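Re: [ENG-882] Designed sequences occasionally contain unexpected residues at chain ends

Forwarding the minimal case from QA. Structure tokens:
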């Protein structure tokens, strides 16, 4: 990557993305964040220069700078990613830690963050805008959809399908062949042995659905 990167989101995984880019000798131009209290401050020596809607900085995307969206909340991550695609005609770059193991037969799309110790095995698909935290295991032939988040230390068994926007908590285990619906949430440490419907929240070992109020 020749151009510097503008990171959208200055907290949480924004700091992780900065560390990844720095380790690869990729220059981070600045952070953009919608929290005005962060503007004109520095995060690990990189300035927070404005909001994610600031045209003064957006005009550089796709010309002089690349973009990475470092926002964990799926709807906001989607908003920014769609804005970059529609207004700047670009997809965000990936932030992939050097200490990952990714099969050459896996598919990795755009705008993903894959942190240290994660494993993505043969035949797995990680499309766009996903977050795979430290030491997560994506086994062979797992199929993720866009905007999935997999927590640290989670194990996603072979041939699992994770629907768009699904959230897998830290340390969860998903048994082989399970289908997780769109926007479903798996609580940390849970063991999932049966399919989970869209928008359901499950918890426990074995995991059961938490009734909505």
């Amino acid at each position: 990557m020749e151009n510097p990167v503008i990171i959208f989101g200055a907290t949480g995984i924004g700091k992780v993305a900065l560390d990844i880019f720095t380790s690869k000798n990729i220059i981070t131009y600045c952070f953009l964040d919608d929290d005005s209290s962060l503007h004109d401050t520095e995060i690990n020596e990189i300035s927070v220069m404005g909001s994610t809607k600031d045209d003064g900085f957006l005009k550089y995307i796709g010309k002089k700078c690349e973009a990475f969206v470092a926002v964990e909340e799926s709807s906001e991550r989607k908003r920014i990613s769609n804005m970059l695609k529609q207004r700047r005609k670009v997809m965000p770059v990936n932030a992939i830690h050097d200490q990952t193991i990714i099969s050459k037969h896996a598919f990795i799309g755009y705008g993903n963050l894959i942190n240290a110790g994660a494993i993505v095995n043969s035949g797995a698909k990680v499309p766009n805008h996903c977050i795979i935290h430290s030491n997560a295991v994506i086994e062979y032939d797992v199929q993720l959809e866009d905007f999935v988040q997999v927590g640290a230390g989670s194990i996603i068994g072979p041939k699992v399908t994770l629907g768009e926007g699904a959230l897998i908590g830290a340390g969860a285990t998903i048994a082989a062949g399970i289908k997780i619906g769109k926007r479903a949430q798996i609580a940390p440490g849970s063991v999932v042995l049966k399919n989970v419907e869209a928008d359901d929240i499950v918890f426990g070992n074995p995991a059961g659905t938490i009734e909505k109020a």
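QA comment: On inspection the terminal residues look reasonable. The two ends are 48 Å apart (CA to CA). Proposing we downgrade this to a documentation issue.
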